[in-house]
Amino acid sequence: MSIIFKIVSISNDGHCLFLHPTQFKLINETTGTTTISFGLKEMEVTYQQSDMLRENEIGVTNTIIEYLQFPLGVDYEIAIHNGNITIGPFIGLLIAKSHAKLKRKLKKQHRIIEQYPLLNGVIIAFSWEDMDHKTETILGYLYNSSTKEWEKGTFPFPTVIVKEMALSKNRIKFLKNLYGSRFFNSNSINKWKMYQYLSDNKELLPHLPKTVLYKRPKDVLNGLKRFGTVYVKPIYGLKGIGIMKMVAEPSRYSIQYRFKQKNKKMYLSTENELLNYVKNHLKKNKYIIQEQIDSQLQKGHIIDFRIFLVKNQTGQWEDVGMIARKGSKGSIVSNLSNGGRTNNVIKLMAETFHISEDQVLSIQEAMSGIAIKAAEEIDKYENIYRHGVDIAIDRHQHISLIELNHRYPAFKNSFPKDAVTKIYYSKLSYAKYLAGFPLDKEK
């Protein structure tokens, strides 16, 4: 529903909910009982029609207000499912470990202020320290849309928690057990775990470069013997940092990497030199070894593509756009932080493959389908609301899935403003969906 409601206090000691005749019809009953929920709290109440209320008012007795801890003066929406009523949305932002850090971080929550008119309901910010797990209450801060200030108060546990800071594995496990999929943005996935998840999908497997976890120096040597060229990547790496390209040449081995924004290259003459180098520079279980994708489509330049996916208020993955990245000359990575540049996808692909715009659009559609399928596969393990999906295409136009980046997926200066806005807004739009208020597709 899109109507905004105010909760009106009714001086009555009973457990009764009063609805305007227009809203009363939605329950499809003339009288009786229902369950009303707010956050993780719920209460069985009677309900009845009241002509004394305005259409955008819900009358609630003091007993209900005290038990469910409704903040008054808030713009609410209501959702009715099988006669049961949810008042909200009620979204919690877990943004700090301690209350002291929470107060400092509140000043940086500018996007909440921008987005609130699209959300309504209750948004609270809190720290782990503020959660009382025995009473399931939180001492946090509620965003007041009238004053545009954060106001301190005590609230029940919200319907949805969005994790905005690092948490220990035990704390993540606790919140997952309590909230299930309604605790999201819950964890990061390293490159090796990502490969394991995706390779379980038979449809994705042909699009995944062969990858192994580094455990001993011979793993690199075996990869070079098998593929000739491999990329060695830190499993927790970002922005192309720490990546090495290793090549088995006829009488030596070459190793390329980036250092202080410059391309570097070194040569090793024997297998023993290679094994000693790897032993001294790589840590067990901290790197992956990956076959090379021939993405050097223009002489001296790596070219790949990033697709931006977000979960929206319908709970579905949405492709909000794509950019092409062209690495600096001689670079082994295309990352913008390492000298890469963004390019228009249609123009670059048409020039590179000598194909029409319609053919480019067909390839784009296939890339988008693979990206969404990969995101859906990750959904089986973690509830993540956004991905920057890196994809490469070789000379034969075969599509390869490099990785899904969910920590820093967007380049705000390289994308249309409306798409960047959609990426930024997706977190709370998806939270609203999880809270029981999906987008009305017909509207």
UniProtKB/TrEMBL annotation:
Record lineage: Bacteria, Bacillati, Bacillota, Bacilli, Bacillales
Pfam families according to UniProt: ATPgrasp_YheCD
Matching PANTHER family: BETA-CITRYLGLUTAMATE SYNTHASE B-RELATED (PTHR21621:SF0), RIBOSOMAL PROTEIN S6 MODIFICATION PROTEIN (PTHR21621)
InterPro entries reported for this sequence: YheC/D
Protein name: YheC/YheD family protein
Domain of life: Bacteria
